Amino acid sequence: MTLARLNNLTASLQTSNLDAVILNPGPTLTYLTGVQFHLMERPVILFVAPGQDPVLVLPELEMLKVEMFPYKVQAFAYGENPSEWDAAFRKASQALGLDGKRIGVEPRQLRLLDFGHVKAGAPESEYPDASEVLTGLRLKKDKAEVDAMRRAVKIAQDALEATIPLIKIGMTERELSSELVIQLLKHGSDPELPFSPIVSGGPNSANPHASPTERKLQVGDLLVIDWGAAYDSYISDLTRTFAVGEVDDEYKKIHKIVQESNAAGRAAGKPRVPCANVDKAARDVIEQSGYGKYFTHRTGHGIGMEGHEDPYMRGDNMQLLEPGMAYTVEPGIYLPNRNGVRIEDNVIITEDGADVLSDMPREIRVVG
Amino acid sequence: MTLARLNNLTASLQTSNLDAVILNPGPTLTYLTGVQFHLMERPVILFVAPGQDPVLVLPELEMLKVEMFPYKVQAFAYGENPSEWDAAFRKASQALGLDGKRIGVEPRQLRLLDFGHVKAGAPESEYPDASEVLTGLRLKKDKAEVDAMRRAVKIAQDALEATIPLIKIGMTERELSSELVIQLLKHGSDPELPFSPIVSGGPNSANPHASPTERKLQVGDLLVIDWGAAYDSYISDLTRTFAVGEVDDEYKKIHKIVQESNAAGRAAGKPRVPCANVDKAARDVIEQSGYGKYFTHRTGHGIGMEGHEDPYMRGDNMQLLEPGMAYTVEPGIYLPNRNGVRIEDNVIITEDGADVLSDMPREIRVVG
Questions:
Q1: pTM for this structure?
Q2: Considering only CA atoms, which of B305, B365, B341, B316 is closest in space to residue B5?
Q3: Interface-testing mutation among A40, A62, A112, with chain B (most B C-beta atoms within 10 A)
Q4: Minimal Cβ distance to A212: which of B63, B112, B191
Q5: pLDDT tens-digit profile of A22-39?
Q6: Of B283, B34, B8, B37, which is closest to residue B139 (Cα–Cα)?
Q7: What number is the ipTM of this complex?
Q8: What structural domains and CATH numbers belong to chain A?
Q9: Chain A residues with CB inside 8 Å of B315's CB?
Q10: Contact list, B196 vs chain A (CB under 8 Å)
Q11: I need a labelling partner for A66 at 20 to 30 A (CA). Which of A97, A256, B30, B99 fits?
């Protein structure tokens, strides 16, 4: 499977204006090799150039990982002294004849640290942005990928259902977040979660990217839980919003609006429709309700091995949806310093429409 | 506290040849602000220039985080359309008068994505490596930091002790890893763990950076567990090696050698001694035993908010230890395709010696 993926990459390199691409630890590297490396102070770089075996630069202490590669790679290992690292990178680019050539990079993933060493090894090269070629590789999910995502959704939903009865008034956001993580692992998530759950109550729920705090759940709070599981490196990313005891009527109202917006966003996804339409469908509902200025983010993002990847459901994105594309639909209304609501589902485009992987009830539920 | 840290940074900038530094989400940004941002496709950058309020560029949807800053910052927010982002970065560098100046970067943390936007906003600037200034900030831990690390060690040790009775022959590495994560959270680790535990048995234990697999524990395996907790953003990073049932005499022998090497490494740490001495003390024991070529990595790394930070315990590192420096001592012997041993502790340099934060038994223990 990974060999077919590598062949796809080299085929698209041949029709691009790139002579090679370089990858550091992250989802694209894992996608192409099946091997896990960690991003750390010791750089790891895979060079891929059409017609040649890929070349890997890595620390000596990780040499055993070379045997885990599903195809032949030429490895250049370096020792612990950083002053010797550039030499390994020089050998790598020489082995592929890359100095002076066009070596594509992945700007969202590559650090200046990695780039500095690669450049020291091939100082005459150009380093154009290869995001388009690389993004294209992972954009359409095959059956095995969709099955893994489906499993990641099921694990996440089962874990939250198991957590809900444990929610109590006076519990802190952090306590609830820890309990949810425990349930995610018990229900079979990969030990490396895709992200740390967002558990935010009351005023914190009005911050879409809150980190769990020591604040205690109080009657009258809205409670936003944004969580996901990983299965076989594929992830889920869901959100539900709860009422802690009895809440203000306005909060029930905005919850209902977001629920309708989420339904409209889910319904808008089908092949050959621009991503912008999904955003518009969800946004129109909120704008027509008069809360438009409190929906402060795009409607969704692509999902697969990463929490945020192409395609993005943004008003300016005219990219057309195609079967196999996977993304979130996650409208929200955030009333600053008061309360917020978000409802998020995971969707896959099929041949004739869209398949919503998540089916946990979206109605407001009372907890605590 | 964070204001004092910011003042330290601006003071060291004034004696450096830098006009400013830029920080993206990561430990240095958290250290200086106390605010958590996630590294994602939307860049977040803090500009720090002496004599001026710091400037923050961030997505609009994160604007509420600006109120969480412990000092005044000037914020430039951008919307969801990436084509508008460079304009926010231009305003930020104009506000500080930075174009054409020397703006220091953190190459281990900054991505080409972040750097590209900063550069678009200040194209005439130079971007030297500011690692030395930034590393210096976090190098010596104060009492509150040491207390948090001590707590992170205690949580980790208690969690592993609670996990050991659950280890069974036939359990997979992944199952054991999940159980350990559950115990870490139950014992009070921050929900965001510093790293996913390494749980590697038999041949996998000979790979220092293994990821947990579906391999089942078997009698005769060595079992390496490398794990840590986080408390208040400060971490622990420990390793112990176990015997699954009865193991070969050679494995008991290498375990004993590594235990002696770890003790020698711990004993070598004190103020005004080069880091290289710690490495040499640990390495000499293994080399004299004839297993030198199987100790394939440095003896340790600094520890604090990150798993790997300065100072590094490497043979070529002549940096002198000073009170408040914190690091790991983690020698190992790895017999390729057979078994491996590592024993890792966390150490803080004091006024007159070193304080070892971890005290879990280091002797080989039989599990399963």
A1: 0.93
A2: B305
A3: A112
A4: B191
A5: 999 999 999 999 998 989
A6: B8
A7: 0.92
A8: 2-138 (3.40.350.10), 143-367 (3.90.230.10)
A9: 80-81
A10: 191-192
A11: A97
